[in-house]
Here is the input.
Amino acid sequence: MKILKRSGAEEIFDITKITAAIQKANNTVQAYDKMTRQQILAISQHIEEYCSHMTRALSVEEIQDMVEEEIMKQGAYNVAKNYIKYRYKRAMVRKSNTTDEQILSLLEFDNEEVKQENSNKNPAINSVQRDYMAGEVSKDITRRFLLPDDVLEAHEKGIIHFHDADYFAQHMHNCCLVNLEDMLQNGTVISETMIEKPHSFSTACNIATQSIAQIASSQYGGQSITLSHLAPFVQTSREKYLREVREELAEQGVNASEEEIRGIAESRVRREIRQGVQMIQYQVITLMTTNGQAPFVTVFMYLDEVPEGRTRDDLALIIEEMLHQRIKGVKNEKGIYITPAFPKLIYVLEEDNITPGSKYWDLTVLAAKCTAKRMVPDYISEKIMKKLKEGNCYTCMGCRSFLTVYRDENGKEKFYGRFNQGVVTLNLVDVACSSGGDLELFYKILDERLNLCYKALMCRHNRLKGTPSDVAPILWQYGALARLKKGEKIDKLLYNGYSTISLGYAGLCECTRYMTGKSHTDPSATPFALDVMERLNAACRIWADETTIAFSLYGTPLESTTYKFAKCLQKRFGIIEGVTDKNYITNSYHVHVTEDINAFDKLTFEAQFQRLSPGGAISYVEVPNMQNNIPAVLSVMQHIYDNIMYAELNTKSDYCQVCGFDGEICIVEDDGKLVWECPNCGNRDENKMNVARRTCGYIGTQFWNQGRTQEIRDRVMHLSGVRKAL
Ligand SMILES: [Zn+2]
Here is the structure.
């Protein structure tokens, strides 16, 4: 059994330390106030027992809270008083500098929390450590200077979560849709070097990846590009090859028919598409940005985004190549093909690709095979999205954050070149538990907490206000997001719906369980859950009207924060069955991971909540290895097309480097801690296995904290009972 020290390092639980600390406080009081040796031992034994029942390491703070409480239960108030005094004095000493210990422990690779903070970063690497050091300083400055006390206190108690404090000291935004079209068609500037309109598809792909790297270093969230912006360059290459082939054959004195010339040129075009797509795939994973990780990139694949005819057929060729290469995977250090985390792929289901016999059906079948093998692409239903987004279909920024519809001065819809200002997430479970189950009180507390979120979100907005375009030339001056002048402030892009700002929410499931005693899937409890969502939306509308900033409700992809929220809830309210008894809380509106529900029902049920989450959300279904059951994958995709805007399938394909096992690596308990184990050879060394799981919309491959690991272990399959029926 382990405990978590303040520095973040893990240590073996040692009962004698607790006994000694109580004994020390006991020694400071008069004889008649003293506890007996038996009382002291009883307290430490009680705490040991409590800790051993937790499936995570408790922090020193949590243990000290328990000690305080137990001493008081023994009626030894003076001992408790002196124990508290001692703690307070120690806390004061520590407060004088909050970052030193954190930074030292992460440099010595001794910080468990940092190790599992982000499943896409490897904290042993120098550049990642530099990023984390900067992050610690930013968090410290945020804490001490930038946030008002009430926001900070709510953040520290887990009532709300002020995201990305590790980047807040700088004037940076969250995520965006890259306007690759503007950059490619009108030229751009990368690292003070002029880049003109490319003359071939492969050059266009090269510029795209260079831009992706620069953009990733200028913001902290995800970015999305669309293959549609690359598609016109296939024809540029084709024309070039036609010219070349004609010239070459003439030089050699070969007499070839027009058909033969076109045939040769076309095979060169295909080769170039293959190379261009490979460049994007490999560069995106191998690039290490200044954030210490591969760029969080989403690639959008939407046939209807370009005009019918040659361009659309060329786009189909690029999509096909993208899927083929993803199915193959990328080689790990041992040369084995594995599932890469990036880029994330999104495929749009539409009329001409969703039914057998439709023009692009074969592409959809290929997408299904890719999902079965590599977890991506994820799926957007054009039909449902058009209903929800005023007749438009467009990609999310990064993993799930959706823009609202915006029209430029000519009344034309514009999506690429827009961005999100940032996120603050409300912990709905805490609102419920704080109300004690009283509905009237619940809504009163909800309103108070929403005001706090508003205040926190305005801190984010104000941090961006006044930012000069010079902080990130590629974003603000050279077309990725805008074409502002040097020295010009970005302010006009913050208002009137050009960019959005996100009110996140988490734990609707546990919140509803606490308030109604039932799951939100129970028809008698669903109306309450929907009502909570309506109220969150209403708050966003009021704020948007007041400020002309596009506030939008967002199903937060909680990564490490799910663990933080769960720990805070246990600390504030103790263990409440079905509400605070896990080391995670459920993301957004999702059905609890342990609830038995089939894939089709889950997607249909969650669709009504996705409609109420306009700032972003994604639904998923957990499925076993589907590589031998592609028709079942296609059935789920057709169900998505008819019922829900945006969804994904969580398939499994892990790899054990010790024995070569290719399948699902499992989670087992080891001395109160959850660890990954190869079911074939028992290998538990995380450095000798490749595990890919989707935890927040992106695929993570660098392992997770204890809370998220427990959530992954608890996941039930949504596609086992229905397999026969398909
Ligand atoms: Zn193995």
